[in-house]
Amino acid sequence: MDRNEFITIVMPLKDKLYRLAKRILVSKDEAEDAVQEIFMKLWKGKQQIENYKSPEAFAITMTKNYCLDRLKSKQASNLKIVHSNYQTSENIERNIEANDGVELVFQIMETLPEQQKLVLQLRDVEQFEFSEIAKMLESNETAIRVALSRARKTVRDEMIKKYNYGIS
Amino acid sequence: MESVKIEKLLEAYFEGNTSLAEEKLLRDYFNSNNVAEHLEQYTSMFAGFQVAKEEHSSREFNLPERKSKTNKTWWYSVAAMLVVAFGVGSFYFSQPHYTQEEKEALAAFEKSKKAMMLLSENLNKGAEQITFVEQFAITKDKIFE
Questions:
Q1: Coil, helix or strand for A62?
Q2: Does any CB of chain B come closer than 8 Å to the CB of residue A153?
Q3: From CA B61, how far away is CA A16, in angstroms rounded?
Q4: Phi then psi for B19, rounded to 5 degrees?
Q5: Which of A20-34, A110-124, A145-159, B92-106 has the lowest mean pLDDT?
Q6: In B65-125, where do the E strands start and end?
Q7: Chain B residue at shortest CA distance from A143
Q8: How confident is the model over B68-115, as pLDDT tens digits?
Q9: Is there a single domain that holds both residue A126 and residue A149?
Q10: Residue B102's pLDDT is what?
Q11: Are the C-beta atoms of B44 and A105 separated by less than 8 Å?
Q12: Residue of B nearest to A35 (CA)
């Protein structure tokens, strides 16, 4: 595979990989660093990409593993994840009417267990098929459905809690 | 009518039993402006996913350097290896190599050289003595003249 081929395969995945990385690592900078790192890794393993049926699934699995590792080493070295991202200016771009609610959805998503967070991101944000998600997360469809159901219910319940609280 | 259908879909949605097409129906419904009042609490959830999908990074990601560069470093190591191989090789080949027979011959040559040297040394000693004899002959001639 030459450089141009590599670019046409990998570049369109940029934003998806970034969003996934950001979902795990929370920080924008760290997510960007992670994507850069993933690109390097993908380039090094480009022979492997060709063998995989879906380069997308391969790249997403790689991103997931890399980011979870990063998170682990960060927690191990006792660094706190900074949850400051949602106060930055980029949020202004967000849908203004639903802003409070949207903000809340993001906050709730952050509190989900890793696997549920990933499933929710890949299904409800990126809209992948269950079979694809199962492959990406090296799991099976049943487990994915269960995790997804839990994640959706948690978001719903937390939203309702906050929603009712906001009204009363 | 519509909201009944949506309620059913929502129920399946929270159990993880909706297809992508059904989820699209839900998204479209909640992103439209006529959400039934009792379902409004779900709006921000779907709006949130929509916003999440629009997130992107504006950073320029560098792709790894061109392949030629990696080739160059590959050549460096090859060149270094050649230099080392040449050095070791030339050192190795500059050392003379003798077979057993040649070694024996060389040893014999050294021995005979030594013997010749000894011989010539002694011969020189003898020649020195001759000068005395010559001196004797000269003085003898002087006296008997």
A1: helix
A2: yes
A3: 14
A4: -85, 170
A5: B92-106
A6: none
A7: B16
A8: 555 667 888 889 999 999 999 998 888 777 788 888 999 999 999 999
A9: yes
A10: 87
A11: yes
A12: B61
What is the extent of the structural domain holding A100?
94-168
- Give first-to-last CA distance, chain A, whole Å: 61
* Residues 6 or more apart in contact with residue A54 via CB below 8 angstroms: A132, A135
State the angle between helix axes of B20-31 and B2-14 in degrees (0 to 180), rounded to the nearest 10.
130
**Domain CATH number, residue A156:** 1.10.10.10
Tell me which chain B residues have a C-beta less than 8 angstroms from the C-beta of A156.
14, 42, 45
Amino acid symbol at B27: R
Residue whose C-alpha is closest to residue A72's, from A64, A62, A83, A84: A64
Measuring CA to CA, which residue among A45, A88, A17, A14 is closest to residue B60? A14
CB-based contact A117:A107 (threshold 8 Å):
no
Tell whether A9 and A63 lie within a shared domain: yes
For testing contact with chain A, the best of B13, B39, B44, B70 (most A CBs within 10 A)? B44
> Which residue of A102, A115, A128 is the best one to mutate when testing the B interface, meaning the one whose CB has the most B CBs within 10 A?
A102
- Alpha carbons within 13 angstroms on the beta-carbon side of residue A121 total 28
Distance CA A61, CA A42 (A): 11
Residue with tokens 């990406």: A136
Q: A32 in contact with B at a CB cutoff of 8 Å? A: yes
In a domain, A89, yes or no: no
The single residue listed with the structure tokens 């979870």 is: A68
- State whether A72 and A112 are in the same domain: no
Domain presence at residue A126: yes
